[in-house]
Design brief:
Number of domains: 1
Mean pLDDT: 91
Oligomer: single chain
Strand content: under 5%
Helix content: over 70%
Length: 512
């Protein structure tokens, strides 16, 4: 019961923080900043405690709370932790104080509203991961749009209105179809069993015809694929990243994109296993296209934010590949890759924000020679660059290697049985690593080396606050790369449950 109470505190603490912020004078900017940081640090402490108390050997939900909410509809306030959401909750809590601290010097306009929106989006993201009732999940899923819309729309760049409208239209369109599919799914469950429930545990037990599953999965998959994003539904992402303030970009890359991959793993594939078997070849193909196409787009960008934005499309393609492999190693690799990408991409966006505060440009061609001008900054940048490439000992290597290994393990028996598509896709996915090295090393060469650009002289290197932020990011990247055994143990039971749910009902001859 104590841990369940702590989990509720973890979720609701940001709203309490917003309530306290309302009492702070509008011009007391330093008080606002430090109060918000304190709230997120308490969240991090709670998340760390729950992580250590999580029992890796126990299957199912832990620290669960289930209370009636809208009883007539079968809606409950139900939250809990399992191996599927544990690492993502920890990631969200870990990045929270880093985002807040990173914005200390960047935001001077409407400071109180800005930090309130950071707390609100923290609440919505944690709620999305923790919700075990699909009605509650949908409420949190939609609630994320409001603070992100404001973060980009108020504190974004010159084209912020265009970017926010595009972002909202894309995500809202997918969400509306998901809501329609969810209502049909609940109605079907009530018609066949007499049970009115939005609980995932009840809905996953429903048995629907293949044609119905196919339509429902298509609706869920559209919403989740937009959020990942997968090609060809990716075009909102570069605009959102370019126009968002640094904090918005870190939240987008670090956590919000994982809502799509998490949605596939938690809801889309387990709820509709037969349709998943039917759609797997197409989804795997789109995943590999995202890996290669995203990397190729990153290779030709001059805007440093767009380089990282397109690289996100490529890296999250490996997550989808691992989930679709239905191999235990691949599934766990997908979970590690979600966390790794959040750390690495979030860290790179923080570094872009730091250098933008000094030079006020995002064009790669305007930079050069930063290795001499900003030596400490350059060391951190190279570490995160190599982690993005997937250098061994970093989290990037662990996640992508396991996802690819799982894809190859699943593809080889099918290849021997005469179905070579999965093996071709797995081999093609490897090219994304080569392309990743090309675009990141091109980025580093143009950014750090060559002749220093005169307009940027002189430049101040990282201050103590910035060093601390990046040191924590780098420490987590190496910890996950060098010691992946602990998180892998904690996710194994959930990965096996996912594997069983999705693979047990596969249609003969339909899997790739």
């Amino acid at each position: 019961m104590f841990e369940a109470g702590l989990l509720n505190a973890l979720l609701w603490l940001p709203l309490a923080g917003i309530g306290v912020l309302l009492l702070v004078p509008r011009d007391a900017h330093d008080v606002t900043r430090w109060l918000t940081l304190a709230v997120t640090l308490v969240q991090l402490a709670i998340a760390a405690w729950l992580y250590t108390r999580f029992d890796a050997a126990a299957a199912g939900l832990q620290f669960e709370t289930r209370l009636p909410w809208i009883a007539a509809w079968g809606v409950h306030y139900q939250i809990g932790l399992d191996g599927t959401n544990l690492l993502l909750v920890a990631l969200t809590a870990y990045l929270g104080p880093l985002v807040v601290a990173g914005a200390f010097s960047a935001i001077a306009k409407d400071v109180k509203l800005f930090y309130a929106m950071l707390l609100l989006i923290q609440f919505a993201m944690l709620g999305t991961f923790l919700a075990q009732d699909l009605f509650l999940f949908y409420v949190f899923w939609e609630a994320m749009l409001i603070p992100m819309f404001l973060l980009i729309g108020i504190w974004g760049g010159e084209r912020r209105i265009y970017a926010t409208i595009k972002f909202v239209l894309y995500t809202a369109f997918g969400s509306i179809l998901m809501l329609a599919a969810l209502i049909y799914l609940v109605h079907s469950l009530q018609t066949t069993t007499g049970i009115a429930s939005f609980a995932f545990a009840d809905l996953v037990a429903a048995r629907l015809p293949l044609d119905v599953q196919a339509w429902l999965l298509a609706a869920f998959a559209l919403a989740f694929a937009i959020k990942v994003p997968m090609v060809p539904l990716h075009t909102w992402l570069p605009d959102a990243h370019v126009e968002a303030p640094t904090a918005g970009s870190v939240i987008l890359a670090g956590v919000m994109l994982k809502m799509g991959t998490y949605g596939f793993m938690k809801l889309g594939f387990p709820l509709f296993p037969d349709a998943t078997a039917l759609f797997t070849p197409a989804l795997m193909t789109l995943s590999v296209i995202s890996i290669v196409y995203g990397a190729c787009l990153a290779l030709v960008q001059d805007d440093i934010k767009k380089i990282i934005a397109y690289s996100s499309i490529s890296h999250l393609g490996y997550v989808m590949l691992g989930l679709l492999s239905l191999d235990l190693i691949g599934i766990q690799g997908a979970l590690i890759q979600m966390v790794s990408h959040g750390l690495v991409a979030g860290g790179l966006f923080l570094m872009v924000g730091m250098v933008y505060e000094r030079c006020h440009t995002r064009e790669l061609s305007a930079y050069g020679g930063l290795a001499k001008l900003l030596p400490v900054y350059s060391v951190f940048f190279m570490i995160l660059t190599l982690a993005s490439v997937g250098l061994p000992t970093t989290s990037g290597f662990t996640g992508e290697f396991l996802a690819l290994l799982g894809a190859f393990k699943a593809a080889w028996p099918l290849h021997q049985a005469g179905n070579s598509l999965p093996l071709v896709l797995a081999v093609t996915a490897v090219s994304g690593i080569v392309l990743g090295a090309l675009y990141m090393l091109r980025f580093a060469r143009g950014f750090l080396f060559g002749a220093a650009k005169a307009p940027h002289l002189p430049l101040a290197d990282l201050n103590g606050r910035e060093k601390s932020i990046l040191a924590l990011i780098v420490a987590a990247v190496f910890a996950l790369g060098l010691f992946p055994d602990e998180p892998l143990r904690k996710t194994e039971a959930a990965a096996r449950a996912y594997q069983q749910l999705v693979s047990s009902s596969r249609l003969p001859g339909k899997a790739p």
